[in-house]
Structure formats: structure tokens, C-alpha cells
Amino acid sequence: MFLTRMPINAARRGARRLMASPQAFHAAVLAGFAGDGSGRDGRVLWRLDSHEQRRVVLYVFSPDKPDFTHIVEQAGWPTTEAWDTKSYEPLLDSLEVGKRFQFRLTANPVRSGRRDGWKETKPLGHVTARQQEAWLLDRAERLGFQVVPSSVGAGDGVAEPDVAVVDRSVRRFDRKGAQVTLAMATFQGQLEVSDVEALRHTLTHGVGRAKAYGCGLLTLARPPGTSSS
Amino acid sequence: MSVVAISLSGPMQSWGSGSKFVRRSTEMAPTKSGIVGLIAAAKGLRRTDPLEELLGLRLGVRIDQPGQLMRDFQTAQRPRKERDGTVTWRSMPLSYRYYISDAAFVAALEGERALVEGIDEALRSPAFPLYLGRRSCPPAGPLALGVFDDDVMSVLAQLPWMAGERHQRRHVTQDVRLGVLRDAHAGEPGAETIHDEPVSFDPNRRLYGWRSVAREHVVVTNPHGREGAVEHDPMSVLGGG
Questions:
Q1: Most exposed of A32, A125, B84, B173 (fewest Cβ within 10 Å)?
Q2: Complex ipTM > 0.85
Q3: Is the minimum CB–CB distance between A83 and chain B shorter than 8 Å?
Q4: Residue B151 CB-density burial (10 A; 0-12 exposed, 13-18 middle, 19+ buried)
């Protein structure tokens, strides 16, 4: 199992084309694998992080080692920066109950709802940041972690959980003639491992819906304030 | 050596270095010829006056807020009176003029103490009106930031971030990296050359030389940064494998 980081050159036309359509991006990511990328221990998950206007990074989790030459040629820096793939096993093996990490997750928070005239319920996107946070907190325990209480604003004894929706958007695009609408939210915060097996499954199989469209990849990093090993 | 720091921010700026004919371009950071010209205007020098004492200054420009490139397709016309008294309008050459909009820079110039103090004083009470590269680009506030006993890079590292509040709020981290373009040392590797070393502003014999520029960056604090906000880097927990 591997995690790959690849910088995307957002100034290139190929990058614009991919970033405009999650469907095209998914196809490009999957084209990096000889098979269909899925296996017994996980499926391909990907996410685009844009830190600043011009700094976009693609993260991919995959059971097999990828080859993204085609994406670098269209949307990267072919002569200087390619991609960086690292084995995910050391992290998965080091998970212990009580261990803390900083996390980042782009997800598609939905609830099931029915509007007038609908025969059946359909998944409807959560749109406010509060609903989206509640959506994540609601299923954190099942996913194998707890969100750590925040250290700021804990004066009156009730500490808010340390999670924030740092980016959110509603994406619309066409798929086979029908329109797909996705409410996407990017969460960042601190978590504490509460169930190792469940968290392993979360990290390798993703969270929530729309995993083919850049949602569901949960990544862990060292919490702020701790020195690099 | 002493350093004088100048704040260059305004709704529009334009810093040309190699414009010819109808295409009047701008660099994305203030040029040395533009800044030396601004100081000469503040001191009340005429275009034909010798510039010698200003030419030895070492320049560093910090990019506080990069701004956006703006193009003006200019269709100016001028009136001409015909013999019968009617007025016809003749087009001036159609030209493309480029500007940087909504940008903020800090320039630091290093030189002798007396010279640098004179520049600071002149900027506070200029002899001619001052503008940021073109006459139509007035500065958005006082230019002079004072005189420091230090070198260019450390002055640029200690001055506060001059970007607008909205721009600052867009950065969540407490430290921000700002690019700096400074005069390169002799023989420094990786330096770029641009046609921007002013020699004379004499309208009949304008002269520019080539100038070597090195790119660096300084880290300054963001007053609107959130404590503990660090960039998420999942590769940090994966080790060497």
C-alpha cells in the first residue's frame, strides 16, 4: 500500500482540464495503474489540496505502486518535479489507541432526505459548515478515531472539537448526459486513534461517498508542535 | 552601510524595462530604473542632471502582495483644427499599456549614511510629484519607511508585512515567505540579467545597462495567521520507505 504526492502545475492547460472535471481526474489517476487499482486491502483514493492559488498537490492512496508519467507530462513539471511514492505500511503498523495525528479529509457529506414529489429518499448534500462538521463528528467513532478537544477557547470548560471546514464547494459536472452535483467539504483538525482496525479500514477504503471524484481520502500527519523524528 | 526603505503600494503600478513602440510592458516588481527615477524626482533633479551618486546604491525589492497584471488597450485621439474651422479627431497609435493592479512592494536601498538619509528626507518632502512607474499611478500613502543601520536582506526581513488585510487573511499560517529580488553579488551563480541599470535619464540620450538580479525570500510574520496552523503534510509520518 502506497501514498503518492504529486505537485500539479495549475498554470498548464492540461492541469486546468483535469481540475475542471473530477471525472477526468479520476480517469487520469486510474490510468496510472496496470489493473483497476482495487484490491483486497483497499481501493484507489485521491484528493487535490490547493494550499495557495498556485500550489496544488495531488495525493493518491493505492494498493499498488502507481506510474503517473502521463499526468506529469500533461499537468506537472516534467523536467524537475515528478511524484513521490512512499510505503503506507509503516504508518498503518504504527497506529495505536491514544496516538494523536493531524488529519485532513475532503469528503462529500450527505444525509438521506425526501422532497415533495419524490417517491424515494435520495442522498442530499450537507451545505453549511456546521452541518458538515456534525456529519464528520457523528461518524468519527465508527471510522476509528475521536476528534481531539480544541485547546483554544476552552475557558468556560466546554472545549469545542478541534476540527474546521477549511474549504468547501459545490461542484457540478456532466456525466453521461446527466448532471452530477457534489457538495464537497475539506476538514482539517486533530484526531486520536480509538480503534486501530477501523481506522486502518478508513485509511485504505475511504470515507463517505463520491470516492471516484476526489472525496474520502483521509490523511494523517504529525500534529503541530511535535518535532520531526 | 545604511539602508533606506520605501513602501511602494497603490491601486496601479507600472514598471517598464524594455518597452518599444506601442507595447508598453511592465515587470511584475519595481525596477531599479523606476526607483532611482522616483528618488531623483523627490530630490528635484532634472532629467539631464548627473545621477552618479544614486547609481551605486544596492537595491532589494520585497514582494508583499503580488497584484495582478492589467492591460489597457489605449485608443487616445487628439483634435485637429481644419482650415474651415471644423475640428476633426485623429487617432494616436493604438497601444497596449500594462499595469500591475493592487500590489504592494517594499524597496530597500543600501548606500552611504549621508546619501541614504538625504533620500529619506527627500521622499518625505519631494520636489516633484512622485508616482509608481507612470504618471497615472500615484502611491497610496507615504513612501518613506525610515533609515536603518543594517544590510538590505535583514531590513527586508524585519519590516512588517505591508499587504492588505484581505490578502493577509487568505494566508492561515503565522509565517509567510515573501519573494525578494535583489542586486546580485559579482559572479553570483543563478543570477538573471535584465536591461534595467539606469545610467542616464537624459531625454535625448537615455541609457540603461544590464543588471544582475538574484531571487531569494524572507520569512515575515502574518498578523492574521492562526496559531498552530501548519500545512498538512501526510508524507511526514511515512519515513524513508
A1: B84
A2: no
A3: no
A4: middle
